[in-house]
Amino acid sequence: MTLVNKKWSEQQFLDTRQEVLGTWPTGAEVDLDEAIAYQKSIPEDKRFCAKLNKAIDDKVTLIQPRAGVALIDKHIELLRFLEDEGGADLLPTTIDSYTRLNRYSDAEHGIKESIAQGTSMLNGFPGVNHGVEGSRKVTESVKSPVQVRHGTPDARLLAEITIAGGFTSFEGGGISYNVPYAKNITLEHTMLTWQYVDRLTGYYEDRGVSINREPFGPLTGTLVPPSMSNAVAVIEAVVAAEQGVRNVTVGYGQCGNLIQDVAAIHSLRQMTDAYLKRFGYNNVIVSTVLHQWMGGFPQDEAKAFGVICWGSAVAALAKATKVIVKTPHEAIGVPTKEANAAGLRATKQVISMLADQEMPMDEMLLAEIDIINRETRAILERTLELGDGDICVGTVRAFEAGVIDVPFAPSRYNAGNMMPARDNKGAVRYLHIGNVPFDKSIVDFNQKRLQERAKADNREVAFQMTVDDIYAISNGQLVGRPNK
Amino acid sequence: MTLVNKKWSEQQFLDTRQEVLGTWPTGAEVDLDEAIAYQKSIPEDKRFCAKLNKAIDDKVTLIQPRAGVALIDKHIELLRFLEDEGGADLLPTTIDSYTRLNRYSDAEHGIKESIAQGTSMLNGFPGVNHGVEGSRKVTESVKSPVQVRHGTPDARLLAEITIAGGFTSFEGGGISYNVPYAKNITLEHTMLTWQYVDRLTGYYEDRGVSINREPFGPLTGTLVPPSMSNAVAVIEAVVAAEQGVRNVTVGYGQCGNLIQDVAAIHSLRQMTDAYLKRFGYNNVIVSTVLHQWMGGFPQDEAKAFGVICWGSAVAALAKATKVIVKTPHEAIGVPTKEANAAGLRATKQVISMLADQEMPMDEMLLAEIDIINRETRAILERTLELGDGDICVGTVRAFEAGVIDVPFAPSRYNAGNMMPARDNKGAVRYLHIGNVPFDKSIVDFNQKRLQERAKADNREVAFQMTVDDIYAISNGQLVGRPNK
Amino acid sequence: MDKKTLVIGVIGADVHAVGIQILNFAFQEAGFNVVNLGVMVTQEEYIEAAIEAKADAIVVSSLYGHGELDCQGLREKCDEAGLKDILLYVGGNIVVGKQDLTEVEKRFRAMGFDRVFGPGTPPETTIEYLKKDLGVA
Amino acid sequence: MDKKTLVIGVIGADVHAVGIQILNFAFQEAGFNVVNLGVMVTQEEYIEAAIEAKADAIVVSSLYGHGELDCQGLREKCDEAGLKDILLYVGGNIVVGKQDLTEVEKRFRAMGFDRVFGPGTPPETTIEYLKKDLGVA
Ligand code: B12
Ligand code: B12
User: Fold this and answer.
1) Which of B295, B390, C56, C67 is the most buried (most CB within 10 A)?
2) Residues 6+ apart with CB under 8 A from A466
3) Angle between helices B226-242 and B363-386 (to 10 degrees)
């Protein structure tokens, strides 16, 4: 099958389905007609799309944790705790790393070890192994809509099982769940597997069941310049829309500078709307999500609360539709349910106190939106050019050419020539442009900002800044200044 | 002695001193010449003024906790913990409530009970009872400058003892340590006792020892409109300057709306400078302090972190010279040293992440600074008029007339006719103007903003809003909306 | 004369003035006669006011942490003044620091208080208990 | 040939790519030969690389929580492959969740690791131990 940005025919989709469902015994549990009927029985207030749409109308920011453990009962207990004690508006089910790599027998081993040791030996919920029934047990046991969150390059079976299992939102995309999460998998391959997921979502949509899809915004979570991650989000939104997806949440991982972060959310919304419209997808509802700082956290819990709360403030001031919440255990390990709920409550407090406030649209903010828009457009236009107008083909070639280039990505299909660093106010800029196709004015802008920092740091602009910036937040700073 | 804003003659000061020192045995320990020599031996990096002045130059925000327990050793342990484990830049010594009311024998009883019960039975450090030697033990045992923080209407003896004891900053003022902290004490009386404290500070200053003075900005800490508390801060700065004080920190208690809070700090700085200059005090160094939300806190510790961190962000974005830090135990009781240090670390994390950022000076911010400036000037000009140009006389009359009127104050010398409430974005406005001397444009501005809220709340502008606002933050909101 | 009368105030050297203003407001709304002594109230003032107003209960508020020292002996003084069995409530942040509430309750009950309330008790809760204890429908 | 050789990589299905890039950089700066296998490294890959490079130590990084499952049997496989007594380090966020570190260390030592490091260990610390254990001045 060759990759182009074109809606799969129903036949092509249904043929592929047979293969997909056969890759693990629980695949047999999925009956699409029955699943659609089941989804239709889920009340509105437990549907992701409905809750997001209402939040857009009300201009409020919803809060959502990450969470997942190996065993169904424990997982339900965890989710209930997060809605009752944490006040989560939206629930997650974070999938374990074996399932993400389709290593279902390793996941099975993890389940058994977890039962034996009396504690979760998996870093998430093995959704495929627990099957449609297991999934339904989960989604039926809670009051809020539940989303699958993972990092799975080939999530076709996981999508089949969990959507049939009553989940009403599915995170990921052909780029965002490849480049940060895989080493040896081609973009061609994952863009195809994710077209399948989008086509499946479209199949439900065509039959009156709206499922939310969310590209994973933060990518590697480590100093990704807003325009780079936003460009990826726009591509995944467009690709999803072509397969029939009608409800998309585009995401962004907080970088730490207030103006840049608020601008990034505004730009993300503007660019997604603009490109969806340009390609004629006029009936897609777009919401936004801000992820609280996704890089290395401070180990101290009080300091971690500082990072969490600052991310919450930015989400509220940017009026993101939802915010993904970190926990005070972030730097150490998968959080206890108590730590997870504490992160949620701190977040809720800040979000609520800022519910009626937003960042004024002043000159500095407008200028920052403008530069992010220009950078994003430069990347996207070159990508389209490379694909001769096809965004999927263009994406594969853009990665080859280093036009799209994600810092610190494990994937060998990512060029890794671009290098970011913070400017003197902590905004993330392009230190080495690599092959990212920026015109002189953009290059100069980035260089000028980094020169300002170099002057303040009393050193040259160099990679050491990047290294210092990687450690900065966990060491209680934003900009990694040289030791005095 | 009659109250006027005029520097006390040295004779008058020294005569009063004899009385003051005689009110408790430890008064005899104070020898001014010896104390000045002792103060001169304190190294620069342990002096409040020096550290504040450097922070002004570096445009950084220092962090300071509140803390005090009954016994010297325990108190030293506490302060050391706060600098080592909390990273406090400036240290406090919070004085107990008996000492604040000059009930030194009750404090003595509290000290004994604390020894007997093995836990502090006083809510602070009884500085007078511990005397000069006890104070020196404290200030010598720590690395950072230490300030006396209290709420004492007549703090003359406390000032004598603690400044001789090596403290380099002293909080309070004739209004701010009366109206929120006393019931039956006239303003005339406290303005006189605080002239004494300022004169004492000036006496040291004249001899080359700079002691920082800090009017208590937040007053009752409960919905005080910025212009009202700023007006009081300006008066106390002017009055202190007349007595020879040369280093003043003016303060403000966070209200919760970002724009208003940042504007309030800017306005506070502008108005203080303007009035000091107007009265010819040209060599006073002014710094600012933001107090994290001073009203009722949420009981939940995670939520309390939310309030703490939001206050930290505002302090950093306003570039206040220092921030006074709350703790996750705030709603419950005097914090453990661990909880206190946790509040500090969360604060430090946020402050450091925002060190290189500030709120852009855009139209909305400028407009808010302008309204606070106009309101503050209206109050101050009427006060001066009432005093026939004398700010002290004017202040007493302004309180009688309700021109200065602090909400929820326990003092019977406060009119209590003015009533505040939040507008639709959470900024604190004047609901009942009472006798506060505002012209029509200011009255209309306040009313218009409250009408916006009334409309959103779907109810009339009324006192119930105030009641709801009092509970709002502890219930996880900023604006106290009616239950739906 | 069905209305029950409460004497309320903040004990000792405590100046926390917000809560008591709200309690005053709430108790009146709930149909009680309220004598509000405000802040910094001595034991003697509560007793005098209670005698004068023929009060059914004394509601002691303490926020600042010295509550335990301030409340010692109040029940005995009430007894001496002839206010036998008058209902005694105490609430607020009544001890120094975060302490185990059941322990605290025990200590204040031993001092003769009929009910002891922890930090942030909402007015509705207090009113409910008052009605129950004073036999108001 | 004084330089000691390290084989480094992130074990199992773990894709956390930032830390290992920094370790690679830091170990080289500190004067080691480094064979960096990157992320998602199998036990076999470590062993093959160690044999080929005549490595003095294998530094296993694990961040994602499955470290305990992924590391089982590595020492035995080293022994079988003839890498007798090769220095084995493990570090990162090596178990699921916040656990008592001394307990965790015990379990990994029982698996045959010579040193076990907790979350966020700075490169300088690791380098110090490597120099000590490998007898580098
Ligand atoms: C960034 C990040 C991500 C990025 C990674 C992008 C990429 N490809 O690199 C993304 C978002 C993709 C991601 C995904 C996941 N992550 Co992640 N991630 C992080 C995070 C926030 C920072 C990691 C980082 O880059 N730190 C900066 C570098 C410089 O530090 P470092 O990695 O700690 O490495 C240093 C030291 O530890 C030490 N060190 C490392 N190895 C060794 C070895 C030895 C021998 C020694 C001595 C020292 C040493 O030296 C390094 C350099 O200084 C951490 C939490 C944190 N630390 O704050 C979680 C964290 C590691 N992730 C976690 C998890 C669970 C996941 C996911 C499974 C699920 C999820 N949350 O989505 C997936 C895993 C996917 C997979 N198959 O691996 C957990 C692990 C939990 C546990 N162990 O109990 C953590 C701890 C977060 C948490 N508390 O839940 N993650
Ligand atoms: C505002 C405030 C102040 C203001 C008070 C202004 C004024 N004059 O009113 C200022 C800044 C001046 C102040 C000063 C001090 N304060 Co103060 N203050 C507070 C704060 C933040 C809010 C209090 C408030 O107004 N709440 C809103 C009202 C509506 O709620 P409330 O007072 O709790 O009352 C309600 C309920 O508790 C209940 N209730 C009250 N009484 C009773 C009685 C009964 C029988 C029942 C059933 C219910 C009940 O009903 C009320 C209405 O809903 C609290 C901490 C908090 N709660 O977050 C600390 C707090 C009460 N203060 C404290 C302290 C120590 C002080 C000081 C000694 C030292 C200092 N920090 O400067 C001085 C004391 C001066 C003195 N002599 O009293 C401590 C007490 C510690 C303890 N008990 O262990 C607290 C808890 C803060 C802390 N954690 O350290 N304070």
Assistant:
1) C67
2) A223, A419, A420, A421, A431
3) 50
The answer to whether residue B103 neighbours chain C at the CB level (below 8 Å) is yes
Closest CA of chain B from A364, distance in Å? 7
Q: Could you tell me how many CB contacts below 8 A there are between chain A and chain B? A: 148
Q: How large is the ipTM?
A: 0.96
Q: Is B428 on the interface with A (CB under 8 A)?
A: no
Band of the pLDDT at B483, cuts 50, 70, 90?
confident
Contacts of C13 in chain B (CB under 8 A): 97-98, 100-101, 103, 106
Model confidence over D107-127: pLDDT tens digits?
A: 999 999 999 999 999 999 999
What domains are there in chain B, each with its CATH number?
10-354 (3.20.20.240), 417-484 (3.90.970.10)
Give every residue of chain A whose pLDDT is below 50, as ranges: none
Q: Which of D8, D15, D16, D89 to mutate to test the pocket of ligand 1 (most atoms within 8 A of CB)?
A: D16
The shortest C-alpha distance from A409 to chain D (Å) reads 6
Point out the ligand nearest to the CA of residue D19. Answer: 1
* Cα(B132)–Cα(B38) distance, integer angstroms: 11
The pLDDT tens digits for D37-96 are 999 999 999 999 999 999 999 999 999 988 998 999 999 999 999 999 999 999 999 988
Strand partners, B247: B285
Share of chain B above pLDDT 90, in %: 98
Residues with Cβ within 6 A of ligand 2? B 66, 94, 97, 100, 123, 151, 180-181, 220-222, 294-297, 329-331, 333-335, 408, 410, 470; C 13-19, 22-23, 59, 61, 63-65, 89-93, 96-97, 117, 120-121, 123, 126
Report whether residue D82 contacts ligand 1, using a CB cutoff of 6 Å: no
Find, among B47, B52, B63, B49, the residue nearest to B291 by Cα: B63
Residue ranges of the domains in chain C?
5-134
Known catalytic membership, residue C16: yes
Q: Is the CB of A410 under 6 A from ligand 1?
A: yes
Given this model, what pLDDT does residue A484 score? Answer: 64
Ligand 2 centre to CA of A419 (Å) is: 52
Is residue D100 predicted with pLDDT exceeding 60? yes
Amino acid, single-letter form, for residue A376: T
The CATH T-level fold of domain C5-134 is Rossmann fold (3.40.50)
